[in-house]
Design a protein that fits this description.
4-stranded antiparallel beta sheet, mainly beta
Length: 240
């Protein structure tokens, strides 16, 4: 098996992403197809309970594949800001929505775009008018219809100076808790690795690597299975 930036397995198929090519394998690891539809695409995710795979590019593009049919279903550009779209996305638990963190045309701003997952049409955008808010990561909460969010705040000079964890519910951030900036950087880097399947490349090129953590140490963090919701309880451990 090749070495990939992102590697995913839903039990029926395995998908490897290396930036330029998506490789599709069966459950036993036999190559079935490969696709070169969007560049700079290092990670993605399977739509829950399906064999639909969504590939995301740092260039601001998304491609959607049907693994059963071995074909591209949709391809679209979600942002005109190129080269920095590395904040990732998540599906709703029922798979009916995709929530994508995006850099807006003003690169100091971020926004959360919500797409339905039949045709992947845009449903709505949140936070795109707030110049101080920087969304870092999002994942499903234990509460139905809610999402846990790691985010930061810029000061009047455009510099990130505070970080928080909150809950997105009814299109608003609630239950907001501050966490130390260094701890937020750790969590964002950890979540990047987690979202790419803990591959050797994702670990070696992550923020955690540049913070001094080895791949072996990162894999030990994997055993602890950090979630955004539980992180405030241990944030001080990573604030030094």
């Amino acid at each position: 098996m090749r070495k990939f930036w992102g590697f995913y397995d839903n039990g029926n198929y395995k998908v490897g992403c290396n930036g330029q090519t998506l490789y599709l394998y069966d459950a036993e690891g036999n190559e079935l197809a490969k696709f070169r539809d969007i560049p700079y695409a290092y990670g993605g995710a399977f739509k829950p309970q399906t064999n639909i795979f969504v590939l995301r590019s740092t260039e601001g593009r998304i491609a959607v594949y049907d693994c059963d049919a071995r074909k591209l279903l949709y391809k679209f550009r979600y942002s005109s800001v190129d080269g920095c779209q590395d904040d990732f996305f998540c599906f709703s638990r029922d798979g009916e929505s995709l929530l994508n963190i995006e850099r807006s045309p003003n690169s100091l701003r971020s926004r959360l775009s919500i797409y339905e997952t039949q045709s992947f049409s845009l449903v709505k955008r949140l936070f795109d008018q707030d110049p101080s808010l920087v969304l870092d990561h999002i994942e499903c909460s234990e509460n139905p219809g809610a999402y846990d969010v790691l985010f930061s705040e810029r000061n009047e000079n455009g510099i990130i100076h505070k970080s928080y964890i909150g809950v997105l519910a009814h299109d608003q951030l609630i239950q907001i808790q501050p966490i130390p900036r260094k701890a937020a950087d750790f969590l964002a880097s950890y979540k990047y690795i987690q979202a790419h399947g803990f591959t050797e490349k994702a670990m070696s090129w992550s923020g955690l690597h540049y913070m001094g953590y080895t791949n072996d140490e990162i894999l030990k963090f994997k055993e602890r299975d950090f979630t955004i919701a539980s992180f405030p309880q241990i944030a001080d451990e990573f604030a030094k």
